[in-house]
Design goal:
Blueprint (H helix, E strand, L loop, with lengths): L43 E4 L4 E3 H6 L3 E7 L6 H16 L7 E7 L7 H10 L6 E5 L2 H10 L7 H4 L8 E6 L4 E6 L4 H10 L16
Parallel strand pairs: 3-4, 4-5
Antiparallel strand pairs: 1-2, 1-5, 3-6, 6-7
Helix pairs in contact: 2-6
């Protein structure tokens, strides 16, 4: 079942590990208030090519999105999650980058610079139209909380692996948001993506008819 959440965001400070990229001095304002996603931050992010984006304005506004969190040195659940999402990427076909947008956000922005993200993409042979992002560590922390990738137990929340197992799926124009485990069947992830889009409501797994 889809859930609607009032996502929390905030402003960040400091520039750790990204000073060489420059141009971080842009606006960090959140967008004007609207129901549901009114507090999604306009976090400055850099993709694997070093291109700068504003999280809400450039990546989320008007789109159906699927977001997960990862880091390039993760050797436990991350490879399996990425393998599942690669299958989803293939199943989406030419819908990806046109109707649906896939984003991965690093949990270790102080270590994962754009070149490391590109190396990760090359290592796992990730195809086009799926972007990976890093940014200022404080900004990334607040974005993680804004997207609901956190645990209320501080000790659990401090464990980065506890945030790598879910995919946040949303349809921003109609403010429909949900989550799905990244370790579930890729077909289930695709069904969840389709389920937030009214145009794709009946494209999920068929259910047997009863007499």
């Amino acid at each position: 079942m889809n859930t609607r959440r009032n996502l929390i965001g905030g402003l960040g400070a400091g520039v750790l590990g990204l000073m060489a990229l420059g141009a971080l001095g842009g606006s960090r304002e959140t967008r004007p208030g609207q129901p549901g996603t009114r507090n999604l931050p306009n976090t400055p992010l850099f993709n694997q090519q070093g291109r700068r984006f504003a999280f809400y304005d450039d990546l989320v506004r008007g789109k159906v999105v699927a977001l997960n969190m990862m880091y390039t040195n993760c050797g436990n659940s991350c490879p399996t999650s990425i393998a599942n999402l690669r299958k989803v990427q293939r199943m989406l076909g030419d819908r990806l980058g046109r109707d649906v947008f896939m984003y991965s956000l690093t949990l270790q922005p102080e270590l994962d610079q754009p070149r490391h993200l590109q190396e990760y993409i090359d290592r796992y042979r990730i195809g086009p139209n799926w972007d990976f992002f890093t940014g200022d560590p404080q900004d990334m922390l607040e974005l993680r909380y804004a997207l609901g990738f956190y645990d209320v137990d501080p000790q659990v929340d401090a464990n980065q692996l506890s945030h790598t197992g879910m995919v946040r799926v949303g349809n921003e124009p109609i403010d429909r948001w949900t989550m799905v485990p990244s370790l579930t069947d890729p077909e289930h992830i695709l069904f969840t993506i389709n389920h937030v889009d009214p145009n794709m409501e009946f494209t999920g797994p068929a259910h047997p008819q009863t007499a």
